[in-house]
Amino acid sequence: MGCTNSKVQPDEKQSDQLDKYLRQAGKEALLDFRILLLGAGESGKSTVVKQLKSIYKIQVDEEELESYAINIHKNTVLCMQVLLENGENLKIELNDPETKKRAINVKTFQFEADVKQMPVSLGLDIEELWKDEDIQKIWERRSEYWFLDATPYYFENIQRFLEDDFRPTEEDCIMTRVRTSGISVTEFDEGPVHFRVVDVGGQRNERKKWIHCFDDVKALLFVVNLAGYDQVMFEDPSQNRMQESLTLFGQICNNPIFADTPTFLVLNKKDLFEQMIQKTDLSKCFPDYKGGSDVKVALDFIQSKYQQKIQDPNKPLHCFFIAARYKKDIKYTWEEVKGILLEDNKKVLQKANKELKKSKNKQEKLDAANGANTTTAKING
Ligand SMILES: Nc1nc2c(ncn2[C@@H]2O[C@H](COP(=O)(O)OP(=O)(O)OP(=O)(O)O)[C@@H](O)[C@H]2O)c(=O)[nH]1
Ligand SMILES: [Mg+2]
Questions:
Q1: Any idea where the domains of the chain sit in the sequence?
Q2: Which tens digits make up the pLDDT trace of 71-95?
Q3: How far is CA 12 from CA 17, 18, 133, 276, 370, in A?
Q4: What are the start and end residues of every segment in region (Disordered) (predicted)?
């Protein structure tokens, strides 16, 4: 952020201009809080960012909305193609002749470069396929292959997606999956603090880029997909997602660069976890688990597994169990994170206020000595 944001309107009073400029300068120089989101692929990092943008009223523009609409169509087709391909691998027969025909239509469909929507007939095929009992048998065995968590959401809302004037709702945007590649930064101000939230791609081939954002981190948010205890990875379907996440957390939290960085463990997708734990025992991932299907017992156990990864016994770990798809969960988490950060940075905040006061006094003295015009020159220069 340069001086552009600090430039003033000609009709503003000079003292207001100075005040504004100094406030801005204070933000830039002293209260820049960089928050780093890390975690394996599909843990929900970008979903957290989408919710923060909504909380801070950062508008989704028309171009972005159109890209969500295109991606939601692509995600929907991909999800059915994934089911059909894995049905074949698992040797699950499609018995109904109509279902077989529809399956061929979906399997052979490819989006042309400039096509933005699936054809309505294809959407209707997908809707019917989802109701078929053999397709449901494939879905029941989803722990054996990679799939997108939002699969049922896409199929249940397909009628709406197929409408001519379809515009994604806020919930559609949250549920759209777009893999992050590289590093993206979202910025917003609150009081005297300028937040920069850094989101990275979490898949294995993306992680070599992480090192570029390890400096000057005010807080580390490590995001975990709780449902990953019974899921396999996209990059390596022989690897359990939660085991991968635990290993990754061990590497990150013990990295000397984060020795003094406040660390928050965001255990995400609680909604999926609560359903999953009723069907699949946690011992499938952790053979030493003996707590049965009690949600709280299971969550505490998972938290302890992450806690045990931290080698420094004095390093605190702040934990949250949330579903990032719900804005209220992110609101709550963000308030807690901010509270802890502002408390930890009390001294910096006080120092910032002092510096602000000092530079204001200095500027006022300069103004008195040189005449008011200098102020304008300085601000605009
Ligand atoms: N059911 C459910 N789905 C969620 C939740 N949070 C995120 N998702 C979905 O999980 C998928 C992956 O989320 P992303 O935010 O793209 O994951 P990511 O960590 O940014 O993934 P990479 O960019 O590959 O690192 C998306 O389809 C989200 O809609 C949640 O709390 N519940
Ligand atoms: Mg992402």
A1: 27-59+189-342, 62-175
A2: 999 999 999 999 999 999 999 999 9
A3: 7, 10, 69, 59, 20
A4: 354-381
* 224 pocket-lining for ligand 1 (C-beta < 6 Å): no
Whole-structure pTM value: 0.86
- For domain 27-59+189-342, give its CATH number from 1.20.1290.10, 3.50.80.10, 3.40.50.300, 3.30.300.70: 3.40.50.300
Judged by DSSP in three states, 220 sits in strand
pLDDT digits (tens, 9 = 90+) for 195-247: 999 999 999 999 999 999 999 999 999 999 999 999 999 999 999 999 999 99
CA–CA separation, 150 and 3 (whole Å): 43
CA 296–ligand 1 middle distance (angstroms): 22
Q: Which pLDDT score, from 0 to 100, does residue 30 have?
A: 56
**Is 45 close to ligand 1, i.e. is its CB under 6 Å away?**
yes
User: CA 262, CA 108: separation in Å to the nearest integer?
Assistant: 49
Residue ranges of the chain with pLDDT lower than 50? 1-12, 14-15, 18, 22, 26-27, 29, 372-381
- What dihedral angle (degrees, nearest 10) is formed by the CA atoms of 35, 213, 26, 19? -80
**Bridging pattern class, strands 193-200 and 183-190:** antiparallel
Q: Does domain 62-175 match CATH 1.10.1740.10?
A: no
**Closest to 58 (Cα-Cα) out of 185, 175, 170, 188:** 188
